[in-house]
Design a protein that fits this description.
Oligomer: single chain
Low-confidence stretches: 1-44, 480-486
Mean pLDDT: 90
Number of strands: 11
Bound molecules: coenzyme A
Number of helices: 20
Structural class: alpha/beta
Length: 486
C-alpha cells in the first residue's frame, strides 16, 4: 500500500536544540498552558561576524559547505539543484545504474552522448549510481542521508515512501535534514497525480489566460511549471536552511507545480476579482467584446496599468520575429505622438488622457504600427529609447545565443563536454558580487560513484569492489562517440 506523506502536517519535534525544556504545565490553569513565545527566547540571532577582509568574490560561494542529496530528474527538480550548485552547494545526484536521469537519452542530438536536455539542467553536480531498491544500495542511501543537509526530490507522489524514505525515517537518521519536494499538486483531489510542464500550466491558470480571445487556451514557451517551480523550491530550501540555524532541525519543503504557476499568474487572479467591478478596460475585449465570468485571454495586452501590444516591424513578411513590444506609457505620450507624426493627439480630447485612450487602443496601436513597419526592430528600439518610450524587440533564440552582452555577463555560456563537445547553455541568471558562479559541465552517469563512496562515506577500495559485484552501484558510463561507432 502506498503511504502518503502529508506535507501540511507538522514534522515531529525530536531535538529542539535552542529551547529550554518545556516545563510541566499539568497544574497550570488551562488558559496559561499554551506557552507564550517571548520575543527574546524564540529568536536566536545568527552571529553577526565582522566583515571578511578578502576581496569580493574571493570568500568562497554563498552555499559552500551545504551538501545536497539530489534525487531529482527531468526538469523541475534539476533546475532547483542546479541553482543551488551554482551557488556553491555540493550536489550529489543519485541515479539508477545504467539508466540515470531519463533526460540523458531524451531529445538526443549527438548519438550516445548525454542530451542537451540533461546537460543544460545538471551543471556543477556529481553523479553517483545507486540501486536504491537493492538492500546494499539502500544502506548507502541511508549513509548519505546522514551526511547531507538537504534531500531534494521530484518523484511521483509516494515514490520516496516506497523506497523507505519517509520523512519520519529521514528525520530519525538526520534530524537536521531539509526534505524538499516538487509535486504536481498540493494536498487535495489531485495530490496523487503525475504532472509535467504543460499540465501544470493548464492547472495553474496560465493556459486559460494565454492566447487570443477567439482561439484555444495556449501554453507558453517559458517553462513556468517546471523551472518556475524549481525556482520556488530553491527559495524554500534556502529559507529552511536559514531557519535551521535557529531551530537545529530540518523540515519538509513542498513546491507544488500548480501553486507555483498560480503564483506566477497572480495578476490574473487580481483581474478575476476586478471583473466584479466591470469590464477590464485595458483588455482588448474592451469596449466592443464581451466579458464572461472568468478572466479572458488578453492576447499581447500588457499585464499592468500601461497598455502595450506587439507591433510589426520592417521585414515582418518574411521574418517571424520582426516585431517589437510597444508600451504607450502615459508620461511619454507626447513623445510617442511626436515620433509617429501625430502631434495633434497630444492635446486632442480623444487621445490626451489615458482614460480617453482606453477605448481607442486598437486604433492607436494600428497607427503606431504604421510607423514601426518602416523601421527594423533594432532601429525602432534605438529611436524610441532616446525618448524613454518603453519597448522591446522580439528576440529569437538565434539572436539571444549570439548576443555579446549575454556572453559577457555569463548568462549565455559555452561549455565543453567530453562526449558531446562544446555547447551553449544558460548560465546562472542570478548575479552576486561576493558569490561568483562558474558553470561546470554536467557529470557523466556514475562519474563520481567511487569518489563519493570513498571521500564522503569513507568506504575502502575492497568494500567498493564488493558493492560493485553485488549490483548495488553502477560503473561509469562513458560512451564516447568514437567507441560507440566502433
Ligand atoms: N534506484 C532504483 N529505483 C529508482 C531509482 C534508483 N536510483 N531512482 C528512481 N527509482 C525508481 C523509483 O523508486 C520509482 O519506482 P516505483 O514507482 O516502483 O516506486 C521510479 O523509479 C520513479 O518513478 P516516477 O517518479 O513515478 O517516474 P516517472 O517517470 O514514472 O514519472 C514524473 C515522471 C515527472 C511524471 C513524476 O516523477 C512526477 O509526477 N513528479 C512530480 C512532478 C514533477 O516534478 N513533474 C515535472 C517533471 S519535469
Amino acid at each position: 500500500m502506498r503511504t502518503r506523506t502529508r506535507i501540511g502536517s507538522k514534522p515531529p519535534v525530536r531535538r529542539p536544540t535552542t529551547k529550554k525544556p518545556v516545563r510541566k504545565a499539568a497544574k497550570a490553569p488551562a488558559a496559561k498552558r499554551v506557552a507564550k513565545p517571548s520575543p527574546k527566547s524564540t529568536v536566536t540571532r545568527v552571529a553577526t561576524a565582522r566583515p571578511i577582509t578578502k576581496s569580493w568574490g574571493e570568500a568562497g560561494k554563498a552555499l559552500d559547505g551545504v551538501r545536497i542529496l539530489d534525487f531529482t530528474h527531468v526538469q523541475s527538480g534539476p533546475t532547483c539543484t542546479q541553482l543551488l550548485a551554482w551557488m556553491g552547494a555540493d550536489v550529489i545526484k543519485v541515479e539508477r545504474p545504467g539508466i540515470g536521469d531519463i533526460t540523458r537519452g531524451q531529445l538526443r542530438d549527438v548519438p550516445n552522448a548525454d542530451s542537451l536536455y540533461f546537460t543544460m539542467l545538471n551543471h556543477n553536480k556529481r553523479s553517483i549510481t545507486l540501486d536504491t531498491k537493492h538492500a546494499k544500495g539502500r544502506e548507502i542511501l541511508e549513509a548519505l542521508v546522514k551526511v547531507c543537509d538537504v534531500l531534494v526530490e521530484n518523484f511521483a507522489p509516494g515514490v520516496l515512501d516506497r523506497m523507505g524514505l519517509t520523512f519520519e525515517r529521514i528525520h530519525q537518521l538526520n534530524p537536521r535534514m531539509v526534505v524538499a519536494s516538487v509535486k504536481g499538486f498540493g494536498p487535495g483531489p489531485y495530490e496523487d497525480c503525475k504532472v509535467y510542464e504543460n499540465v501544470a500550466q493548464c492547472a495553474g491558470g496560465a493556459a486559460s489566460t494565454t492566447g487570443f480571445d477567439d482561439g484555444p487556451p495556449l501554453v507558453t514557451g517559458a517553462q513556468i511549471g517546471d523551472s518556475g517551480t524549481g525556482l520556488h523550491l530553491a527559495l524554500g530550501i534556502v529559507c529552511a536552511l536559514y531557519q535551521r540555524h535557529r531551530t537545529g532541525r530540518g523540515q519538509k519543503v513542498l513546491a507544488a507545480m500548480q501553486d507555483g504557476v498560480l503564483n506566477l499568474c497572480r495578476v490574473k487572479l487580481r483581474d478575476q476579482q476586478r471583473l466584479a467591478a466591470g469590464a477590464l478596460k485595458e483588455y482588448p475585449q474592451y469596449p466592443h467584446g464581451k466579458f464572461g465570468a472568468a478572466v479572458p485571454r488578453s492576447g499581447n495586452a500588457s499585464g499592468g496599468g500601461q497598455p502595450g501590444w506587439i507591433l510589426k516591424c520592417k521585414g515582418w513578411e518574411t521574418d517571424p520575429n520582426a516585431y517589437i513590444y510597444f508600451i504607450t506609457q502615459a508620461p511619454v505620450w507626447g513623445e510617442i505622438c511626436k515620433v509617429i507624426g501625430k502631434e495633434e493627439w497630444i492635446t486632442h480630447p480623444d487621445y490626451a488622457t489615458p482614460e480617453a485612450r482606453l477605448p481607442r487602443l486598437k486604433h492607436i496601436f494600428d497607427t503606431v504600427e504604421q510607423w514601426t513597419m518602416t523601421k527594423d526592430k533594432f532601429e525602432a528600439m534605438d529611436i524610441l529609447n532616446k525618448y524613454d518610450i518603453p519597448c522591446g524587440p522580439i528576440l529569437s533564440m538565434e539572436e539571444l545565443a549570439s548576443e555579446p552582452s549575454l556572453r559577457a555577463s555569463g548568462t549565455v555560456v559555452e561549455v565543453d563536454h567530453p562526449t558531446r563537445g562544446k555547447y551553449l547553455s544558460v548560465g546562472n541568471p542570478i548575479k552576486m558580487s561576493d558569490s561568483l558562479s562558474e558553470v561546470k559541465r554536467s557529470p557523466l552517469l556514475g562519474e563520481h560513484t567511487e569518489e563519493i563512496l570513498q571521500k564522503v562515506l569513507g568506504f575502502s577500495a575492497k568494500q567498493i569492489a564488493e558493492l560493485r559485484s553485488s549490483g548495488a552501484i553502477g560503473g561509469i558510463d562513458v560512451k564516447r562517440p568514437k567507441e560507440a561507432a566502433a
